[in-house]
Amino acid sequence: MKQTLQEEIGDDIAADLDEVLAHAEKIANSNEYLSIVEIMLILAARNEVLLYDISKWGEHTGIASKATFSRVKSALEDAGLIETEKVPVDIGRPRLRLIATDELVTADLKTLSTEIRSPL
Questions:
Q1: Helix (H, G, I), strand (E, B) or coil at 120
Q2: Which of 45, 65, 104, 118 has a 20 to 30 Å separation from 81 between CA atoms?
Q3: pTM of the prediction?
Q4: Which among 61, 56, 60 is positioned nearest to 96, based on CA atoms?
Q5: What does the mean pLDDT of the chain come to?
């Protein structure tokens, strides 16, 4: 999973995921925790990845469907945790770039779930 993330999306998001996974036990022991889709979208927003790319990767690896990624993205947007900007493409509809809000940019990945409450 991490290898395909690194190959398809990039080194920075793969490194962020490594840091989150290194503290997974501590995160799992907290009362509030984020779903894997929420975590991946937050990491994608911190690295300004396209929603299309992360949801395609997530569906390909069996994490969740593109529709689930889209639904969770909307919940994170409604909660004010991420923003999006349209990125034009040659053919078809513009793609959405995920952008982290200040709260996410400054959040410590080691304690991500305790700092950020799940909007779901």
A1: coil
A2: 65
A3: 0.86
A4: 56
A5: 86
